[in-house]
Amino acid sequence: MNRYMLFLIARRTGAGILTLLIVSAVVFFITSLLPGDAAQMILGQNATPETVAALRAQLGLDQPLLLRYFSWLGGMLQGDFGTSFASHLPVMQLVAQRIPATFELAAITTLICVPLALAIGITAAMTRGSLLDRALVVSTMAMVAVPEFLVATVAVLIFAVKLHWVSAMSFGSPNMDLVSYLKAYALPVLTLCCVLVAQMARMTRAAIINQLDSPYLEMALLKGVSPLRAVLRHALPNAVGPIANAISLSLSYLFGGVIIIETIFSYPGLASQLVDAVSNRDLPVVQFCVMLFAGCYLLLLLLADVLTIAFNPKWRSA
Hints:
MetI-like fold; flat; cell membrane; transmembrane; ABC transporter permease; BPD_transp_1_N
């Protein structure tokens, strides 16, 4: 990498850190404005005002909002993520129990949707203008337009209620057999893949078509190279940058969609814990979960920017 590319990557990284700092302020102040009193909810409605005031002082809720923010931010930077208001356990200890389940769901979805999207996108590009291409384009656009909660609801009605193939609730267990494992993850993964595959397939198709219109690929086809070989050996390597960027951007969407999916299917992941913490006004858990999702989202966006810079021939030669 030359200096200009390193400068661009450093600038993107700095912008990501600044964005995460702004997100931290927005998250903290918005969660502080949630209706209800956390101390009152912990003690119950029968608690005396003196007891509530004492607990508020113990939790630091009686301090000015700005002072609480900087105290919380300083603790986050030092690895202290606070203590749960509801369970009185360290937030990291609570979240650590749910993180593997959420990342397992994200990993399974990624392993399925990325190869499938590449296959659909390449097939549509190679058959550009044909009936198959039109069908793939229309179907992917339709899947992008349909929200996840509607896909999840329809999937539950068909596969769980009508056909009884799988359960409407998804509970994974390390001791389950392969069939039970597939049934547990079938509906959540299917729902997430619908939107992700459609997005990545459309972007992959556009990137491959852009390469197919290049003079070097037309020359390869004139020399007798088969269309499939030309796409896989010549077009695909040169389209790695845009395709990798499309995959990173699409996967960043995964962290937003997983909140809806975990809630609908009662999946024991980080997103369902976030929803429970919001209902219980467990502010430390809410703040840390949102920051973790935001950090993962910004990390994938940064990866997309880095891949775009790394595979841009104009910037490589600058």
